[in-house]
Amino acid sequence: MLTQEHKNQIQAQGMDLALVEEQIKNFKDGFPSLKIHAPAAIGDGILALDDEALKKYLQAFARHSKEIEIVKFVPASGAASRMFKNLYAFLEKNSNDLSEDKFTKHFIDKLSSFAFFDDLDKALEKKGSSIAQALKEKDHLLIVRQLLEDEGLGYGNLPKGLLKFHNYENGPRTPVQEHFVEGAQYGVGKGNKVRLHFTVSPEHQTNFEEHIDEIKGDLEKSFGLKFEVSFSQQKKSTDTIAVDMENKPFKEEDGEILFRPAGHGALLENLNDIDADLVFIKNIDNVVPDRLKETTKTYKRAVAGVLTSVQEAVFKALRQLDSSVNESSVENAKAVFTEAIGSKLPENFESLSLGEKGNYLQKKLNRPIRVCGMVENTGEPGGGPFWVKEKDGTLALQIGETAQLDLDDPVQKERFQSSSHFNPTDLVCGIKNYKGNKFNLLKFRDPKTGFITQKSKNGMDLKAQELPGLWNGAMADWNSIFVEVPLITFNPVKTINDLLRDEHQ
Q: Which domain holds residue 105?
């Protein structure tokens, strides 16, 4: 139970008391695991596009795109510090010896392949050295410090979006620049305009704005397009309370109760504020050089074409049900739900009355729609595509994360391990209904799909709570369609040495 002192502190920090009490209850009770009915597979929940289908959906998107508002939504608030975990470990050893540090040796050996090489050389010149001199003297610590620390390039404290990723003849590009270029390739909507939205950390927004001011004019001239850029920050109101190991509010050294950012699921609030007909969602670090962009462009447009085609059928079916619930309108709505969307009806559906069938289908169709790219499972972390039985008996597609599953259950473990694909945060979303009004996306989140993790602060253990993930629990009650996309469209940069892979050279 929260004491009166706790309640006073929570309210003084501007947090919703009822919500915090619910979070405390979640710590005590835990979250129920997601029950997988079966993994989705090609032909059973995952659509594979042959050449004819690819052409059809590319044409569908081309037909719709100039008439709709499109936004490219890019989660970009993550700090790059995790990219440099191995290099920080090297600094902690405080030794220039690379004989037992394969990661740092590879980094040092391939320095000239990085897009930030010239900047790093200039930073070393300010210290009276150079990369060549430091390498000759085997002063590897100096090189790494100048890369990471603020007196050098400060890469350790920058967000990924502002690091130089790729080399070109006319100069290096950051992920932000690559997202502008991608936006010009598949995100052009009404008014010949590309709308980009970045979610950023408060301390970095000015840096993002300054960088975009530098690059935007040239890119607009180059593509003959207008770029409209907006930003948002993870809302403080989405933070969740931290507790000690006895599920009591964790107190800071100054006596204040600790609230922590609640993971990427908190960005559902940011997405909910977007006013657009169609939203592409793609992580900041999943970008490639121009020579590899064609496949991404093709499949992004095709997946968007799937969405606009399905929306067209859904909206027509809903208008028919509005006009009259009869055998014809119900059969058409049923076909749209089971064939266009691909969900599976509950076993008792045929025993329902005509009116009950109409109500069921109206409710199921009038929801946000997302089409998710799925790549073959290569062991990378990510949410898997699964069939899940909903409370009303419907079999629907959902993305399930490992943390949501009970892998101690041998049946669930086998179903999880037999999954052939995963989602690399590659989504196209339809967030307006058939009347042209925005959905309140918060109503389609499953609050019981959060995560509890163990952390520490000031040397003390604590438990933290994350909101339902943006592309799993936060979208649990959406209509979901899964489409296979080529593995080359997924090229995240998790460590600095990932930039040495051929896909980023």
A: 81-157
